[in-house]
Amino acid sequence: MAISRQEENDAFRIFVRNRNSSVVDQLVADINKEIEKRIDCTQCGACCRGLMINVTNDEATQLSKHLDMSTSEFKHKYIEVSNGGQFIINTIPCHFLNDNKCTVYENRFNECREFPHLNKNNFADRLFGTLIHYSICPIIFNVIEQLKIELNFFSENKNS
Questions:
Q1: pTM as predicted
Q2: Distance, CA of 146 to CA of 31 (rounded, Å)
Q3: Is 7 exposed, middle or buried, given 0-12, 13-18 or 19+ CB atoms closer than 10 A?
Q4: 125-149: per-residue pLDDT in tens?
C-alpha cells in the first residue's frame, strides 16, 4: 500500500506545508497518542530490524555499564564510526533485538526511545523523513492516514 500511495503522499507533503504548523503538530500528537495505544510494537519490530541508530558517547557509556563491560569493549563490539564521525550501531538488525523485543529496553538509545518521532515539533518540516518509514512502521502509516482525514486532504485534492 505504501508504494501505491507514493504520489498521494508526495502531494500530501506539499499540502501539509501550507497548513498552520502548530495546528498540524498538535493534530499529529493527538492522533499519535490514540494510534500508539492500538499498536503493539513487539508484534512488529521492523524499526529494530531496519533502522540505522545513532548513538552518543554517553549512551554507549551507559549501556556498557549496564552490560557490565568497558566502554571501549562495548564500542568495539557494537559501534562503528560513520563517515561524518557519528557513532552508529554496527549491524542491522540491532544486536539487542530478540523475539521483537529490546533486550536493553530500559537502557535503550535515545533515538530508539523517540521513534517514530511524532511528538516533536515542526512535523511539516520532518514529513519527508517520516514518510521514509511509512512502509515499515504501522504507527506512522496509521497516523499519516488519519492526519489526511483530519486535515480534509482528500476533499481538497479531489483532482490530484
A1: 0.87
A2: 7
A3: exposed
A4: 999 999 999 999 999 999 999 999 9
Q: Count the helix, strand and coil residues of the chain and give each as a percent rounded to the nearest 5.
A: 55, 10, 35
**Integer Cα distance of 33 and 70 in angstroms:** 38
Q: What is residue 92's DSSP assignment?
A: S
Q: In whole angstroms, what is the distance from residue 137 CA to residue 155 CA?
A: 26
Cα distances (Å, whole numbers) of residue 8 to 81, 101, 131, 147, 152: 37, 33, 11, 13, 13
What does the domain layout of the chain look like in residue ranges?
Answer: 6-46+117-156, 52-109
Alpha carbon distance 131, 158 (integer Å) = 21
